[in-house]
Amino acid sequence: MRRIPVGATAAIAVAGGYAALYRLGQTWGATRQERRRALAGDELLPDARAFTTHAITIAAPARHVWPWLVQMGWGRAGWYTYRWVDRLLFPANGPSANQILPEHQRLQAGDQIPDGPPAADCWFTVERLEPDRLLVLRSTRHLPASWRQRGLAMEWIWSWHLSEPAPGCTRLIQRNRMRLDPPWFERAFLDTIVPADFVMARSHLRGLQRRAEASTAQPIPAQPGEIPAEVLC
After folding, report:
1. CA–CA gap between residue 162 and residue 170 (Å, rounded)
2. 51, burial (CB in 10 Å: exposed 0-12, middle 13-18, buried 19+)
3. In what order do the strands lie in the sheet with 169-181?
4. Of 156, 154, 171, nearest to 41 (Cα)?
């Protein structure tokens, strides 16, 4: 039997690992049904050419999860990613918040959420907001101004969808829809960012999960018929 050269074996392993990371970057945590489901906000970018759907189950009612979502952003509560990710990508922003910030709890459609320091001129706009249920952000300014001036463009719809399959238990779906131009930039961007989103999305959702579940230890009056989260999740 002919032996496969070591270099070819290594190349196959690298290609397989990259393919696995790319797939996880598109789908981590989400079921097939969740990935295929049409969600609010999809219609805002019908001609999107890149998609990811991630999900996590949180042992807390949606009303405990929501305050963490609405305070996200640069110069606000951060993105709840791993600290090393914060240091790498958001060094001037400091660590993500571990508590609810009352000054960032008022959010409504049309508001801007910073995506970097003022000099970067980057932000998201709140497109749709339904407390305890839905947050949809849009950005055409995620890329630094210097990139946009060179003709590079990106439109991004970033959404979070909350549901309670059982009282006190939240299923959170996060979806990204993107379109980039020109085509060579889109290919280069996606080849890099989609595999990395396995780390980014997972750290973001797990950070959100950890904070929301910890907040259930703080007494919030139960709604009629609500079952404690620890019983069901």
Report:
1. 6
2. middle
3. 50-58, 169-181, 153-166, 134-139, 123-130, 112-114
4. 156
Q: Count Cβ neighbours within 10 Å for each residue of 199-223 and write b for 16 or more, e otherwise.
A: bbbbbbbbbbbebbbebbeeeeeee
SS3 label, residue 217: coil
Which pair of tokens denotes residue 201? Answer: 């999305």
Which among 63-77, 86-100, 111-125 has the top mean pLDDT?
Answer: 63-77
Alpha carbon distance 151, 9 (integer Å): 40
Q: pLDDT tens, 198-210?
A: 678 888 999 999 9
144, 117 Cβ separation under 8 angstroms: no
- Token digits for 47? 């001609």
For residue 230, which amino acid is it? E
